[in-house]
Amino acid sequence: MGAIIIKADSQSNKILSDLARKLGGDVITLNDDQFEDFLLGSMMDSAKTGKTVSRESIMKKLSSK
Asked: Residue 64 has what DSSP assignment?
């Protein structure tokens, strides 16, 4: 199953969600905070390297500022 996210003004959102429901789709409404959380999570997933960093390395970076 696929999904799309369309960010538009409230009137366009209503028209698009009504159309999606008529076509048999499920519509989930996100507020701005939820949308930002989704985008941040997506950016974090795309930036994952799979590498680990030692605690010492992190503490060294934090203490140098």
From this structure: T
